[in-house]
Design a protein that fits this description.
The protein has 147 residues and is an alpha+beta fold. It is built from 2 helices and 8 strands; from the N terminus they run αββββαββββ.
């Protein structure tokens, strides 16, 4: 994954994480995927390993868990770049499973492909072992509410 330059983020890591905690008040902050890094046009989020309950038969992270982090990484990216517009919603999520995700913390790097007034399109790469061994890739589109 090369260096991405994109629109400047309106929120830094702490700002977007505080916003996520506000958006999901019932979620355990220790298990919520939070931003580790925020840059122009990208974010890196990490969800701590949730133990055996996140595994499917075969001992790998389940598809629904990977889809959840893909969506949350895209939401985090959108919020970091548009600010406090919590009503941005997923309008499309296409997931490609590339290999089994071994048990461990789930990392997702989301990059902004397009940020318009009404829509944001994001590319999300997901891994547990190494960014050089992606387990999944998603394209996620968010609808942005009018101001």
């Amino acid at each position: 994954m090369g260096t991405i330059t994109g629109p400047p983020a309106q929120l830094d890591r702490d700002g977007v994480n505080n916003l996520l905690i506000k958006a999901f008040p019932l979620a355990d902050p220790n298990s919520l995927a939070l931003a580790r890094e925020v840059g122009p046009g990208w974010v890196l989020v990490v969800r701590p390993y949730a133990g055996e309950r996140s595994l499917r038969p075969g001992g790998v992270i389940s598809g629904p868990n990977l889809m959840e982090i893909a969506d949350l990484a895209a939401y985090t990216l959108v919020l970091a770049h548009i600010g406090e517009q919590l009503m941005a919603v997923t309008s499309s999520l296409t997931m490609n499973f590339l290999r089994g995700a071994k048990p461990g913390d789930i990392h997702a790097r989301a990059e902004m492909l397009r940020l318009g007034r009404r829509i944001a399109v994001c590319d999300v790469r997901i891994w547990t072992e190494s960014p050089d061994r992606p387990a999944a890739q998603a394209t996620v589109t968010y609808a942005i509410p009018s101001a």
